[in-house]
Write a structure and sequence with these properties.
The complex is a heterodimer of chains A (322) and B (170). By secondary structure, chain A is α+β, with helices and mostly antiparallel strands. Chain A contains three helices and 16 strands. The longest helix of chain A is centred in the first third of the chain and has 76 residues. Chain A starts with 8 loop residues before the first helix and ends with a strand. The relative contact order of chain B is 0.16. In chain B, helix 3 runs antiparallel to helix 4. The chains are: A alpha+beta (322), B mainly alpha (170).
């Protein structure tokens, strides 16, 4: 007959630790990101950040060496693609300049506050997630610098993610490619609205709500009003698609920010209160209070253009950070 | 002596977690990095007495949990299971050294697969991740390659001779 005393000591300890782990999971899930788990996480992240900083500094020469080797292979094709892109952008710039004037006039007319008015805080990526399944980045700015929970994070190309945890000196960003991320977007060309969902890497899933919507390859998706300020570039459609009767449109879109390799980002000093529109994700985890301090104005302000796109019914303009 | 080696093991685990989250953010062949902490847990479980190995694995997993977005306890569960699995098979590995490579590959893949399944059960959507097979197999392959470096290093830090009897004296 089996009795607990039949177990050898390691097996007993193993079962005990597994039960403890499951208890921790249950307690943490029941707390929904609050409570002791959240406090422990914030404390550990704050305490561990200096260790990560030291290790990153020590290993940077090696990391750069390996990174340069891998970059060498892609340099030639990247060079050609960039030349092509430069000529394309020069052409677009000429069109944009004339459209910019019209957009400003329309915005003034409609009383729209463009995203360029938002203050921002520049930050460096300190660390990544502990595994391939962890779609987070840790940045070296926290509440002391004006960073608050749920603030959008961008880089020179577009939306990178949003702040999901913050301490005095560091903040944790959840990338837009995380499977739990759902972003309200608008197709810049047509104005159709839909939802972008992360898939854990690579292309994101786009679902358009209109029954007769269509998208073509290369269509730019920008944030619609909601959790994020409207008009930030998010992704580009990679597969043309059209809605079928009775079904909403579903296709793929590649994030424009290239989230797998980011070193520097900007946190927009923006809260959902400013958006005033329902969001789609983690509504129960929204901040009850946000820092009043908009951050150091020298680190980014209205004069510092953001990679945003503002769309009106007939006109479009894009500004990209240098 | 015992305390010094345990502290050393804890420090190495902390450094491994720091390397995983910083150094391996840049070194990503085919957009994947080794699961260094899993490898370190395997390496320690080969030599430490069972209770220490399980405790250290739980600590390593808990530290990962605190730095991850997943529910607290998931990585602790996975790492403890890894250590227990290694403890059960380590004598056989000692007898046939050629099994070590495939064993590291298998245990790493098993650990990541376990994390995906348990994560999904607890609502983490890990199985919904794009390229889930790649995210399990590539780190396992890298661990197999890194094992040639990490396993002898951990053995060296413990001062363990190749004699099996010495391995149980921390």
């Amino acid at each position: 007959m089996w009795r607990p005393s039949n177990l050898d000591r390691p097996t007993g300890m193993f079962i005990g630790l597994i039960v403890l782990s499951l208890a921790l999971v249950t307690i943490d899930l029941r707390a929904s990101g609050e409570g002791i788990g959240s406090t422990l996480r914030d404390g550990t992240q704050a305490a561990f950040a200096p260790v990560q900083e030291v290790v990153a500094t020590v290993t940077r020469p090696f990391a750069d060496f390996f990174e340069n080797i891998s970059d060498m292979f892609s340099l030639r094709s990247e060079n050609l693609a960039l030349r092509e892109r430069v000529s394309e952008l020069e052409r677009e710039l000429q069109e944009t300049e004339s459209l910019q004037v019209r957009v400003s006039e329309l915005e003034a007319l409609l009383g729209i506050k463009p995203p360029q008015d938002l203050d921002s805080v520049s930050a460096q990526v300190l660390a990544v997630g502990v595994s391939e399944f962890d779609h987070i980045r840790v940045i070296d700015r926290g509440t002391d610098d004006g960073v608050g929970l749920d603030m959008p994070v961008i880089n020179e190309a577009g939306l990178v993610g949003r702040v999901v945890a913050v301490t005095g000196s560091v903040a944790r960003i959840r990338l837009i490619t995380d499977p739990t991320m759902r972003i309200a977007v608008r197709v810049e060309r047509t104005g159709e609205t839909g939802v972008l969902t992360g898939r854990g890497g690579g292309a994101m899933s786009l679902q358009l709500l209109s029954i007769d919507a269509s998208v073509v390859e290369g269509d730019l998706l920008v944030t619609a009003d909601g959790r994020f300020p409207a008009g930030i570039a998010v992704a580009r459609v990679t597969k043309a698609a059209r809605s079928e009767v009775g079904y909403s449109l579903e296709t793929d879109a590649e994030p424009v920010a290239g989230v797998t390799r980011i070193h520097f980002v900007k946190v927009l000093i923006f809260t959902r209160d400013e958006a005033g529109v329902d969001d789609l994700e983690d509504a129960d985890r929204l901040p009850t209070q946000v820092p009043a301090d908009p951050g150091d104005p020298t680190e980014g302000g209205p004069d510092d253009p953001l990679p945003t796109t503002t769309t009106s019914a007939t006109t479009t303009t894009t500004t990209t950070a240098p | 002596m015992k305390a010094r080696r345990l502290v050393g093991a804890v420090i190495i685990v902390v450094v491994a977690v720091a390397l995983q989250t910083t150094f391996f953010a840049s070194i990503r062949l085919f957009n994947a990095a080794p699961a260094l902490v899993v490898l370190v847990v395997i390496a320690y479980a080969r030599h430490l007495p069972a209770e220490y190995a399980l405790g250290l694995a739980f600590f390593a997993g808990f530290l990962e949990d605190l730095l991850a977005e997943s529910a607290l306890g998931l990585w602790a569960l996975v790492m403890t299971t890894v250590a227990y699995f290694v403890l059960r098979f380590r004598d056989r590995l000692e007898d046939d050294f050629s099994l070590l490579g495939p064993f590291v590959f298998g245990v790493t893949a098993g650990a990541l697969a376990l994390f995906s399944v348990v994560g999904t059960i607890f609502g983490e959507k890990t199985l919904a991740d794009a390229g889930i097979v790649r995210k399990i197999l590539l780190p396992s392959l890298y661990n197999l390659l890194l094992a040639a470096l990490i396993l002898p290093f951990i053995t060296w830090t413990l001062g363990v001779a190749r004699r099996r009897s010495a391995a149980f004296k921390i």
